[in-house]
């Protein structure tokens, strides 16, 4: 598939999830998203109202992180926070699973949590992304989560928060995509800081990339295209 520079930009969830982010930081994030035409700004739930106002009248989404970054909240709490974020302007949701229950092989809990989160998002016609936090999971647990997602059908399954012990890995993206196929999309996030890493994740099957280095990545791809005298880059998936 051939990607133009704008196609690449529309894969990016432009991210600032730091606890000490100021309103000026949030405005900068939104301004950059508008300048580069990123798909979404990924922010903490409490920033939903501010960012949605900054992005009003654009096609750039406001993505609220729920139960971030640990996932250690009850289902009811996650659902409440999701509804609150949506009420305040969020139109995409990324939530972190309860890893404790996954480790306990309480798959009914995981499925119930995912179902409730997907239902509340889809009731409002917005995407739901499920964050696995793969650095804490075995390959079998990643596969099991993907199998549950294939059944429940969130819009995306996501590798990482970026706040764990490691971020996105190509082999994990390929594994996740191999299980869900075309039923669910895969988002890679965490530690993606340059254009080579970015392209590797796209080749592995990711159709959304969460990163704070989006500006740097797009500028590097722009220069690469200019140097090669092309207006698009052909990407062949490897999953």
Q: Give the overall shape.
A: globular
Instruction: Name the helix and strand elements from N-terminus to C-terminus, one letter apiece.
Output: EHEHEHEHEHHEHEHEHEHE
The N- to C-terminal Cα distance equals 14 Å
Total beta strand runs: 10
Average per-residue pLDDT, rounded, comes to 98
Physical arrangement of strands within the biggest beta sheet: 2-3-4-5-6-7-8-9
Structural class: alpha/beta
Provide a quick synopsis of the model:
By secondary structure, the protein is an alpha/beta fold. Helices cover 46% and strands 18% of the residues.
Question: Any overview of this molecule?
Answer:
With 239 residues, this protein is α/β, with parallel strands linked by helices. 46% of the residues lie in helices and 18% in strands. It has helices at 5-9, 23-36, 48-54, 75-87, 99-103, 107-123, 139-152, 170-180, 195-204, 214-228, and strands spanning 2-3, 12-15, 40-44, 61-66, 92-96, 128-131, 156-158, 185-189, 206-211, 233-234. The strands form 2 sheets. The protein has an 8-stranded parallel beta barrel with strand order 2-3-4-5-6-7-8-9, surrounded by 6 helices. A two-stranded antiparallel sheet has the order 1-10. Helix 2 (23-36) links the parallel strand 2 and strand 3 (40-44). Helix 4 runs parallel beside helix 6 (107-123). The longest helix has 17 residues, at 107-123. The protein is globular and about 55 Å long. It starts with a strand and ends in a 5-residue tail after the last strand. 45% of the residues are buried.
């Amino acid at each position: 598939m051939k990607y133009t520079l704008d196609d690449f930009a529309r894969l990016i969830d432009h991210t600032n999830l730091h606890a000490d982010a100021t309103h000026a930081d949030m405005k900068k994030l939104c301004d950059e998203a508008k300048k580069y035409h990123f798909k979404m700004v990924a922010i903490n739930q409490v920033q939903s109202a501010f960012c949605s106002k900054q992005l009003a009248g654009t096609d750039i989404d406001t993505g609220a992180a729920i139960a971030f970054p640990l996932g250690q909240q009850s289902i009811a709490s996650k659902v409440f926070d999701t509804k609150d974020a949506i009420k305040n302007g969020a139109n995409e949701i990324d939530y972190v699973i309860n890893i404790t229950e996954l480790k306990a092989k309480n798959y009914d809990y995981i499925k119930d949590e995912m179902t409730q989160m997907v239902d509340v998002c889809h009731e409002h016609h917005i995407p739901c992304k499920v964050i696995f936090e793969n650095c804490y999971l075995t390959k079998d647990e990643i596969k099991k989560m993907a199998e549950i997602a294939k059944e429940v059908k969130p819009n995306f399954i996501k590798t990482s928060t970026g706040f764990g012990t490691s971020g996105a890995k190509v082999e994990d993206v390929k594994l996740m995509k191999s299980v869900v196929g075309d039923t669910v999309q895969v988002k890679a996030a965490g530690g993606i800081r340059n254009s080579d890493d970015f392209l590797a994740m796209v080749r592995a099957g990711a159709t959304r990339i969460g990163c704070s280095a989006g500006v740097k990545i797009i500028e590097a791809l722009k220069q690469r295209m200019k140097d090669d005298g092309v207006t698009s880059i052909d990407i062949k998936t490897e999953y």
